[in-house]
Amino acid sequence: MMDEGRLATFREAVNRLRQGPHPRGEEFELCREVLAVAPSSPEAAQALRVLLEGAMADAHTSIADAQIIMRLLKALDRGEVQPADLLR
Fold first, then answer.
1. Roughly what angle, to the nearest 10 degrees, separates helices 42-57 and 26-37?
2. What are the φ/ψ torsions at residue 61 (nearest 5 degrees)?
3. How do residues 3-52 score in pLDDT, each as one tens digit?
């Protein structure tokens, strides 16, 4: 189980990405819509991954957020956190 402080940090970063505007583009806006409409669906897990990876490639993502997002992607890959835990 992940500690609550770390989980809260991850949730805050995800919420910033969900609010936008970065990363920008139609694909990312569609991801945000999926996360808003069906946050517990399998599609939401994929949409979250696309949004996180897009943020890593976006020059407007702050260094602090990029560091958090990288740790989050690693935690997702290791199964330490599930997308549903981040989208509550």
1. 140
2. -70, 130
3. 999 999 999 999 999 999 999 999 999 999 999 999 989 999 999 999 99
